[in-house]
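Task 17 of the worksheet. Students: predict the tertiary structure of the chain below and write it out as structure tokens. Keep your answer in the requested format; marks are given for formatting as well as content.
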Amino acid sequence: MDKTFRQSPLVNQVMEILSSRISKKIYPINNRLPSEIELAKELEVSRATIRRAMDLLVERGLIYRRHGIGSFVSNEPVISNPLSQFIDFREMLFAQGFVPGLVELSAKITKADPRTAKLLHIEPYTTVLETHKYFTANDEMVVYCVNHIPLWIFIDVMKPEEVLKPGVMEPILDFYEKRCGKRIEYYACTIRTELVKDCNIPYLSEHFKPNTPVIIIDEVGYSAGNQPLHHSLEYHPGNHMQFGLIRLLKYADSKEYLGNVRKAFNTLNNQFAAVDISSRLIGSD
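Model answer:
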């Protein structure tokens, strides 16, 4: 039975259960959910807990309410991905009411191809660590990631065979700062689109149709001294995520202008929750 509670806030647990049922089509799209009283009795929690969990599901777009009738399942939910921040995908997914997951497929020591080497400011075919993994939302793959890390990042603090173990590099920013003593201050990225058949990623080819569109975020993380520390490729297949963008004009350096942009940012963020003001920065404000 899916009502076994773990040690986390009851509201989050109830939200996770309901999100899972929506994902598994136990509650089909546009069908009415059980009433608050029915759910409170089934899950053995207070009606106030059910109401708060339902409020969060409404905020995240998973359900909608009809006054005097009840709560209904929305059309397929879309994940909002804020381009202006580098956020751990699991944190982002959980905050939006999804059940997050991570599958680490491979980690190997290999040689950087000329393009990767150029991005990392190393000689072509220099040895690097390459990892492949993907993140899931409600057990469905939503983003596939390829990481390239120069050996000099970690070679003084751990052996190559240690870094190949599952979980060692998660979360990636903690791995850099807490384990390797290297802080990533910002990411510079480019965004392009391709089809699955052109991505040269076997996992995507096995699980998606050849002509499925893919958004690719190709980015490099830099130190405060502008030294490249990390290269990442994110593959976003299908239509799981949506992105918003505010484009600044060339005279966007006045305090008044930036204040107005910030107001627009907050408004758009509340409505859309996926906004980019400039580049992809950690801790931008």
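Marker's comment: The beta strands are 63-66, 70-73, 79-80, 100-111, 127-137, 140-150, 186-195, 213-222, 228-237, 241-242. The radius of gyration is 21 Å.
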